[in-house]
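Dear support,

I submitted the protein below through the web form. The confirmation email said the job was done, but the results page showed an empty box. After a refresh the structure appeared. I'm attaching both so you can tell me whether what I see now is the final result or a partial one.
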Amino acid sequence: MGDVSKSDTPLKATFKVRLNGETVTLATVGQAYSFISNLSAVEWMEFRSLHDEALVALERAAGNAMLTVQATNALRMLFVRAKLL
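What the results page shows now:
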């Protein structure tokens, strides 16, 4: 897939993340990819390996909807460790 951030493949769960006083809803691969790739690398530094795994999983799921379970699980692990959920 060319631009992962434009993928409308649904995740297996919808994440509601609270960031800077606003709630962001992440329901698709594209929304999640945009969210975790648009934040500064410094903000994800503590969770670098989980962040990288989530990005790769989302890229794969954008091209193959069968992989959305893995992408959803990778996001869940990242968000729990980062205390965003």
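Response: this is the final, complete result; the empty box was a page-load delay. Helices lie at 29-38, 41-44, 48-63, 68-81.
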